[in-house]
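Tokens for Alcohol dehydrogenase. Go.
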Amino acid sequence: MHTITRVGDLDVIVKPSPVAMVWNEPGRPHDALAAPGVRLAPGEALVEVELATICGSDVRVARGEEPAPVPLVLGHEAVGRVVAIGEGARRVDGVPLELGDRVVWSTTVSCGECDRCRRGVPQACRTLGRYGHERVHRGWELSGGFATHVQLRRGTGIVRAPEDIPSRVLAPSSCTAATAFAALDAASARVGLDGALVLVTGAGLVGLTVAAMAVEAGAEVIVSEPDASRREFARRFGAVPVDPGARSTSPDGLGTALAAFERRGFGEVHVAVEASGAASAVRTAVNALGAGGVAVLIGTVPAGSEVCLDAESLVRRLVTVQSVRDATGEQLRQAVAFLERSWRSFPFDELVGSTHPLADLDQAIAEAAEGSHVRVGVAPGRRPV
């Protein structure tokens, strides 16, 4: 149990001291950093972490596969409770934050004033900050989810989380559900989802969430995924699973699935969402589209990868190719609303597996690196389960 003491208008003393796990380099265990005092500027809040989950990007940074500033507190997927509030701190919906609010928050911090923010793309803010991706510095030591507390900066999209949704469903939402909603939001600006045929490449958490959201919106969904266990999960999320490694005409092939939908009156794929990060899947997503279709790329293809597309074919088919990275605070709010409506209808609560205490973060990341279809959880003070 932590006690909070305010010292003046800005300074907050927490006892016992908040602890963040700091990453320095591949192969070196995390170091625990205590931050007894937190200075909350206007619009900021201090959140005690209930549960964080390990994203694939956390694993890649820890392995040295992605560049990152050091020292660094990893983690950008979490749910927690507000324990201290700076003057004027508000939720995305404009309601003032209150002590005890259960919240999730955007993966990014935006200024709200630069040309990009004014154009409606705060995820590309000129002074963008990213939870779990910023070098630890004085004044923002609690900058990532692998900590007992996170300091939410002004410009963060903060969303109140319903009490009845399990933490294992909510924790990944700021990354997975928000990105999934952003992808379908982009697609639906051009193609209505109700009655559409949607192809999703990749059945990780983002791809499965895209599938669930599309099914709820009235679409028919095909999920292309090489892993058999993930394909089975896709089926449980209401999608028709196919194996990208199978021959197109085989029972598990994409061609067979498309032919079956054609017999039902679906002449072509209207929306394709690429959520795997594989260059070959980008080609599959774009090439599968029919006339007027839209492809949304949300998987991270490794830097330097090239994807060859037939420009003439794109023009002839009137295809739109769009990318999505992160999500706005409003899109996160809509994603949480989706989970509130639908988490019992889809097996979201099975997509976070074992949970480790914060002190065992290195073990938890090693487990996450094994590549299971489920997230690994990190909960301060909790025993492994």
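The mean pLDDT is 93.
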